[in-house]
Fold this protein.
Amino acid sequence: MPTLNQLVAEQVKIISGAKAALEAAQKQPPTTAATIATRESTIVDLKTRMADLAEAKATIAARLDRQIAGYQAQVATLEKQIEEDKKRAGEQPTAPRTVKRKGKEK
């Protein structure tokens, strides 16, 4: 059975080897496959963002169209009311308006 010192020495040897391998890998430039995979991942992410923005654009456009239609209906209703009021006003004589003057009277 190995002693505690032997186990620790063995673990230090394994950790040192792993550390050296990691440092060597970090010094190496990324492989072509890794670069391609990164770019493909970026493309997928960008396409997802574009789809989300397109959906948001459609939702906002639909909401604006509904608001515009509502305003157009209000304008049409008010225009009809104005025309009816003008017809009624033409049938009835209106009282002259009195103008109140402010200030000193001489």
